[in-house]
Every structure is written in structure tokens, then in C-alpha cells.
């Protein structure tokens, strides 16, 4: 990759310019170059990967022309509008995300497990410098993210950060390939990290109930299944749930830290040590690691071009960006400060869940982090798989825009390869976490800072000319030198950050702190006694999988059936038989789920408050009401109505408005939840109430997934009926 000279010491092949004209005429030239797969507005030269040109595809008509230097935002919006227009008849539409759904994706990316490493960073840097750095880094990332958005608005043909990499570095093919390698490696390593974190959760809640390799593999398989949706618009619902669960998790962790009054292991290491400034034990390597830890949590610009490329109105992206940045600063600083204050430097773990002394509190708060452990890996897998898929199939390919067997087979194969590779590298490399930090130092220096300093220079020179920094007065000078500073900060990450990480790896080997490849060793948080047996959380994960992931995956299968009729074809073209087959599958999973639930409760202790006659016998009407809702809803809908027959084309003549649908919009889900709760109360099991809350949340996610699609099916039928009446 380019060195620091990429930022401000470039030359032109024909002219030599004094700084800064030299920089602006070179890499930051006056006209934007086109990324792979598009052509420049003033050139007929064929670009790499431009398969549509070979097929006679009109790139300009599809919005693939780079906006000229004097284009306005409105011109870019017209091009985006043209892209949306051309997608109108596609089965898979990409530019469909509202700014709210894009905000959900951003929240899921940033509101994540890394929040729980902020207390450790504050313990190394001191609370005051740590909080200051949190605000400063948040401001820098907000600024560079707005630059990213501005660059994408000026060049609406951009699909991902690899396109930007080529445009910034002389429109050279090698720049695209190098950026692509960095992009894929960065994302796959993050996926691998989440395989390991998933194994850490499994080990923590089961007391190392199986080999860590098995737990990592299970996490990878579940993540692969959740990665199947093709568009960000579809993933946005899962993203909202992920961010919501994470928020609950970190707030619970902060509250539990205060409720405990003392951290895990207290008082073995003496009284709590809380510092406003860096303690004397902070070395350069530790301090740099803490600084980079804060920075890496904020840096996520690598995905922004991909998100913007799927927005209906990308001009609204700053709304999503401001919303997530404000929440980031509040949550990161609040959780980091509170947990550090109650834990101290000498009892700190990273992530800070390990510092919670009460095992129930620790496991409950960590369990709420499970959706983001899964989903963040899913998000990076989806971004990467989309990049690869778009290299195979061009904008007009039916395999890219429709539900074809080849298209879906390619998508599934790409995801499978990515997750297998992520799992293998996470297990093979004994110092994987440090290697991930090394990759972050190498890649985030560019994706977090250097790229966007360079993008600023190109944008301003396009709009105001190569001498903009002088003609715009103080504002021009300030912008120029500030973005030079951004490039230098990127170089700090590339140099000092890399040094600190390499030194950490060396220290780890000296201390014999690394295990071997494919180790079964326990990587969970240490356990200091139990008052709720870990088996309950093991089974809760199964129930969550059956009611959150399995329900959603059944819905995905049903939606796929609506588009491609895969299940119908498996049953010889008979849609009704296909629906019955799906019904048997769902019913069988439900029986197995109920078995797991009862097995879990049998292993758990009771609570005296739940054993009083009044509480115990209140479960009877609750159970009867719940089962009444379930059975009457099945009777009203019939087999095909209950088990997603709408997706098979078996539609009801009119909506059901009689009982129980006149008292509940989702009587089956609500009734099932009531039955779970009644069972927990009858047996006096507090753990059952926790599981009921998880199941209720899973049902809510399933409703948000299913209801809009079902409404679309019936709306489409009404439109067809209306057209039929007009024709008569």
C-alpha cells in the first residue's frame, strides 16, 4: 500500500507542482476516476469487471457514469433515482433501505460487545483521558464518515469501499485489488473473532460443557444460517433486535456491577484502585493498546459505502450517522465509566462481564449479548459476500436481481466458504486476538483515516479547483491541514499501533500465554460458584434458537417458497402437500422445544415467593387462557392458514376477525408465551420466567419479520382483483 507520501507527496507524469498542488494534481486530481465496473464520464475506456459492456449493457442508462467535477448533489440524486427505477421490476431490489433501517444497521455494527472493553481501556488510561479520547475519536470518525457519505453522493455508482480505493489511487486496477484484499481479510477476521466469542459464551454458561472447537463451530453454523438474507433491508429487522439486546446487556452489566458492590475475585488483590489519570503501571504498549481499543470500536467506515449503496434516499444518511454517534458517546462513556468505577484497575477483565462477581448476573447480562455476537459476524459476512457476488454477476444479471437457483446457490456457496475460512483461521492461529489487532492496525489506518483525508482533497479539488485551499481562505487552510492531520493519525495507527501489537504477541510467547491450534481449552469466564445451574442457560440458548433463529429461518424458507416454489417442487408441484410438510416440520420443532423447556425447569431451583398458593394457582387460568388462544387461532385459520400457507399461494378469502383475532393480533404467539409463563409459575422456577422473557422477545422478532411480508402478499392480491374488475 501507499505510504505517508500517498497523502501529500505525489507527482504527475507531466508536471511537477509545489505542495499542495502536487498532491491535488496527483492522487487527488481534479476529476474523479471510476471504480471497477464503471466508466468515467469523459472516457470510453473499458474498466475491469465491466462485463455488462461486453453484453451491450448501457452503463450510463443504469446510472453507472461518474458524476463530473461540476455535478451537484441533485445530479447525483437523479442518478440514484434512475438506479431505483431500473430495479423496480426486479425480484431482489437493493436500493430499498430507509434511513431508519440504515440506522439500525449502524447501531448493530457499533453497539456491540466491544463496549465492554471500554472499562479496561479507562483502567489503563485513567478515567479522564479515557473519556476525552472517547469524545475526540467519536468526533473524528463522525467527520470522516460524513466525508465518506459526501464522496458516495458525488459518485453514486460506488458499491463498496473497494470502488473508493481504486478512485483515490489513480484509478489503477492494483489499487482495487489491494483494497479488496484488505477489505475481505478485515471482514473475515472479524467473523472469526465472533466464532471465538460465541465459544466463550457457550463455555461460560455451560461450565465448559463441550470442546471449545465444537462451540465455535456451532456459532459459525448459526451465523451462516442467519447470513442468508440477500439485502440489508431484510437484515435491518435483525439489526434492530441485535442493537436492542446489546443495549439491555451493557446496561444490565453496569447495574449489576453496582449492585454487587465488589468485583469478581475481591478482596484477593487488595482494595479497588480507580485512577483519574494513567496509573504508573501503564506502559507505552498498554497505553497504545487501550487507545487503539477505543478507536477500533468507533472505526467502521469500511461498511458505510455498502450501506449507502442500498439506501432509497442516501441524502438522509447523516440522520442515521448522527443518531448512532450520539448514542455511542453516551453509552460507551457511561457504561465504561460506571463499570470501571465499581471494578477498579486491579480487578478488571476484558470484556468486563468477567469482573461481575455474581454468577447469575454475569450470565444473564452476557446472554443478552448473544444476538450481537451472532449478528455482527453476519453483517460483515453479508457485506463481504455481496462484494464477491457482484464480481460474479453484473447489474442486469438475473442471478443478481432475481430468485434463481444459480443466484442463490452462488450466494450460499460464498457464505459457506467465508464462514469455513473464518472458523479455520480463528482456530489455527494460537494468537488470533493479537493477530486481529495487527490486522486492525494495518487496515484501519487506511479505512479509518487515510482514505477519507484523501477523499476530502479529491472532493474539494473537484468542486473548487486544485488551489481551493488558498481561494477559500481560512476555511480552505483549516480543511487542508486538518485532513493532513487525519492522514498522520492513520500513520500513527500503522506504525505505533503495529509496533504495540507485535510487542504484545512477543510478550505473549515469552509468557507462554498462547495455546495451540484447534484447542479444546476452556476460554469462558472463570466461575466462582453457582446459585442457578448453568444448564438453564444452555437450554435457553436452544429455546432462543428454536423460537428466534428457527422461526426466522422457517420464515426465510417460506419467503423463498413464495418466490421460487422450492418446497412445492420437492412435493411434486403440489403446493398444499408442501404446506403440510412445512407444518409437520414446525410442529415437530415445537414439541422438541417444549421438551427442552421442561427439561430445563426440572434442573432448576425454586423460589419461595413463587411457591405460595396464590401465585401457584394463578398459573391455572393463565395456562388455560394461553392454550385457548393457541387452539382457537388454529381452528380459525386452519392448517394452511396457521402454517404459512399464504407463502404457498394458498390465500384465505377474507381476513379472520372473529375470536381470538378480535382480542389479539398474534393470538398464537401470545398464547404460547402465556403457557410458558404459567408452567414456570406452577413449578415455582425463576429461571422459567427468564426463559419466557427470551421466548417472548423471539416471538416479537418473528412477527416483525413475517407480518410485513404477509401484508404484501394480500395487498398484491387485492391489486390484482382491482385490475380484474377494471378490465370487466
TrEMBL record:
Its EC number is 2.1.1.71. GO terms for molecular function: phosphatidyl-N-methylethanolamine N-methyltransferase activity. Residues 96-493 form the Amino acid transporter transmembrane domain. GO terms for cellular component: endoplasmic reticulum membrane; mitochondrial membrane. It catalyses: a 1,2-diacyl-sn-glycero-3-phospho-N,N-dimethylethanolamine + S-adenosyl-L-methionine = a 1,2-diacyl-sn-glycero-3-phosphocholine + S-adenosyl-L-homocysteine + H(+); a 1,2-diacyl-sn-glycero-3-phospho-N-methylethanolamine + S-adenosyl-L-methionine = a 1,2-diacyl-sn-glycero-3-phospho-N,N-dimethylethanolamine + S-adenosyl-L-homocysteine + H(+). Residues 593-619, 705-728 are cytoplasmic. Keywords: Endoplasmic reticulum, Lipid biosynthesis, Lipid metabolism, Membrane, Methyltransferase, Mitochondrion, Phospholipid biosynthesis, Phospholipid metabolism, S-adenosyl-L-methionine, Transferase, Transmembrane, Transmembrane helix. The keyword Magnesium does not apply. It is a multi-pass membrane protein. It is found in: Endoplasmic reticulum membrane; Mitochondrion membrane. Pathway: Lipid metabolism; Phospholipid metabolism; phosphatidylcholine biosynthesis. S-adenosyl-L-methionine binds at residues 624-626, 706-707. Residues 1-533, 559-570, 641-683 are lumenal. The chain crosses the membrane at residues 103-122, 128-153, 174-199, 205-228, 235-256, 276-299, 320-342, 368-393, 405-426, 438-459, 480-500. One of its GO terms (biological process) is methylation. Catalyzes the second two steps of the methylation pathway of phosphatidylcholine biosynthesis, the SAM-dependent methylation of phosphatidylmonomethylethanolamine (PMME) to phosphatidyldimethylethanolamine (PDME) and of PDME to phosphatidylcholine (PC). Belongs to the class VI-like SAM-binding methyltransferase superfamily. PEMT/PEM2 methyltransferase family. This is Phosphatidyl-N-methylethanolamine N-methyltransferase. It comes from Pyrenophora seminiperda CCB06.
Amino acid at each position: 500500500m501507499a505510504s505517508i507520501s500517498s497523502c501529500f507527496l505525489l507527482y504527475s507524469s507531466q508536471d511537477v507542482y509545489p505542495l499542495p498542488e502536487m498532491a491535488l494534481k496527483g492522487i487527488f486530481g481534479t476529476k474523479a476516476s471510476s471504480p471497477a465496473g464503471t466508466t468515467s464520464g469523459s472516457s470510453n475506456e473499458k474498466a475491469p469487471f465491466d462485463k455488462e459492456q461486453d453484453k451491450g449493457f448501457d452503463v450510463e442508462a443504469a446510472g453507472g457514469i461518474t458524476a463530473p467535477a461540476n455535478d451537484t448533489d441533485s445530479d447525483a440524486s437523479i442518478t440514484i433515482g434512475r438506479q431505483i427505477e431500473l430495479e423496480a421490476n426486479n425480484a431482489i431490489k437493493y436500493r430499498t433501505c430507509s434511513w431508519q433501517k440504515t440506522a439500525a444497521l449502524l447501531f448493530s455494527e457499533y453497539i456491540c460487545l466491544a463496549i465492554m472493553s471500554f472499562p479496561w481501556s479507562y483502567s489503563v488510561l485513567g478515567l479522564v483521558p479515557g473519556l476525552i479520547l472517547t469524545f475526540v475519536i467519536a468526533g473524528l470518525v463522525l467527520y470522516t464518515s460524513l466525508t465518506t457519505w459526501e464522496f458516495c453522493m458525488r459518485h453514486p455508482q460506488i458499491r463498496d469501499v473497494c470502488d473508493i480505493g481504486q478512485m483515490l489511487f489513480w484509478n489503477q486496477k492494483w489499487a482495487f485489488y489491494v483494497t479488496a484484499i484488505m477489505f475481505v481479510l478485515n471482514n473475515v477476521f472479524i467473523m472469526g473473532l465472533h466464532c471465538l466469542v460465541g465459544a466463550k459464551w457457550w463455555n461460560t454458561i455451560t461450565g465448559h460443557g463441550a470442546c471449545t472447537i465444537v462451540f465455535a463451530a456451532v456459532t459459525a453454523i448459526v451465523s451462516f444460517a442467519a447470513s442468508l438474507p440477500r439485502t440489508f433491508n431484510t437484515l435491518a429487522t435483525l439489526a434492530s433486535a441485535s442493537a436492542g439486546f446489546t443495549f439491555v446487556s451493557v446496561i444490565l452489566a453496569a447495574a449489576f456491577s453496582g449492585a454487587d458492590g465488589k468485583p469478581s475475585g475481591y478482596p484477593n488483590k487488595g482494595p479497588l484502585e480507580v485512577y483519574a489519570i494513567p496509573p504508573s503501571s501503564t506502559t507505552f504498549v498498554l497505553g497504545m493498546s487501550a487507545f487503539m481499543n477505543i478507536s477500533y470500536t468507533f472505526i467502521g467506515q469500511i461498511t458505510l459505502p455498502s450501506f449507502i449503496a442500498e439506501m432509497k434516499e442516501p441524502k438522509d444518511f447523516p440522520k442515521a450517522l448522527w443518531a448512532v454517534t450520539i448514542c455511542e458517546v453516551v453509552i460507551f462513556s457511561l457504561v465504561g465509566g460506571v463499570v470501571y468505577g465499581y471494578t477498579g484497575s486491579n480487578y478488571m477483565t476484558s470484556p468486563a462481564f468477567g469482573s461481575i462477581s455474581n454468577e447469575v448476573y454475569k450470565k444473564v447480562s452476557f446472554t443478552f449479548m448473544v444476538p450481537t455476537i451472532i449478528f455482527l459476524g453476519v453483517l460483515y459476512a453479508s457485506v463481504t459476500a455481496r462484494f464477491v457476488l457482484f464480481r460474479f454477476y453484473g447489474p442486469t444479471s438475473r442471478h443478481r436481481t432475481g430468485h434463481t437457483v444459480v443466484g442463490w446457490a452462488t450466494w450460499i456457496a460464498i457464505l459457506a466458504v467465508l464462514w469455513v475460512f473464518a472458523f479455520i483461521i480463528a482456530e489455527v492461529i494460537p494468537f488470533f486476538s493479537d493477530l486481529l489487532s495487527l490486522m486492525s492496525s494495518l487496515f484501519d489506518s487506511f479505512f479509518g483515516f487515510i482514505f477519507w483525508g484523501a477523499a476530502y482533497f479529491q472532493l474539494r479539488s473537484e468542486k473548487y479547483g486544485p488551489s481551493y485551499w488558498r481561494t477559500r481562505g481560512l476555511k480552505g487552510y483549516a480543511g487542508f491541514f486538518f485532513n493532513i492531520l487525519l492522514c498522520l493519525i492513520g500513520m500513527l495507527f500503522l506504525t505505533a499501533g503495529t509496533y504495540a501489537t507485535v510487542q504484545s504477541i512477543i510478550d505473549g510467547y515469552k509468557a507462554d500465554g498462547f495455546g495451540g491450534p484447534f484447542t479444546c481449552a476452556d476460554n469462558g469466564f472463570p466461575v466462582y460458584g453457582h446459585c442457578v445451574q448453568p444448564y438453564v442457560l444452555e437450554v435457553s440458548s436452544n429455546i432462543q434458537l428454536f423460537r428466534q433463529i428457527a422461526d426466522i429461518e422457517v420464515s426465510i424458507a417460506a419467503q423463498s417458497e413464495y418466490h421460487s416454489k422450492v418446497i412445492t417442487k420437492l412435493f411434486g408441484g403440489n403446493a398444499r402437500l408442501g404446506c403440510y410438510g412445512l407444518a409437520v416440520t414446525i410442529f415437530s420443532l415445537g414439541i422438541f422445544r417444549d421438551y427442552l423447556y421442561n427439561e430445563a425447569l426440572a434442573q432448576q431451583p425454586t423460589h419461595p415467593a413463587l411457591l405460595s398458593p396464590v401465585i401457584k394457582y394463578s398459573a391455572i387460568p393463565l395456562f388455560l387462557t394461553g392454550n385457548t388462544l393457541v387452539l382457537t387461532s388454529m381452528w380459525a385459520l386452519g392448517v394452511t392458514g396457521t402454517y404459512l400457507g399464504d407463502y404457498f399461494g394458498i390465500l384465505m378469502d377474507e381476513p379472520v376477525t372473529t375470536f381470538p383475532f378480535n382480542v389479539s393480533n398474534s393470538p398464537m404467539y401470545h398464547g404460547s408465551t402465556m403457557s410458558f409463563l404459567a408452567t414456570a409459575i406452577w413449578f415455582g422456577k425463576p429461571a422459567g420466567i427468564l426463559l419466557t422473557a427470551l421466548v417472548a422477545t423471539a416471538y416479537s422478532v418473528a412477527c416483525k419479520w413475517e407480518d410485513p411480508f404477509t401484508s404484501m402478499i394480500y395487498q398484491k392480491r387485492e391489486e390484482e382483483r382491482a385490475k380484474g374488475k377494471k378490465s370487466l
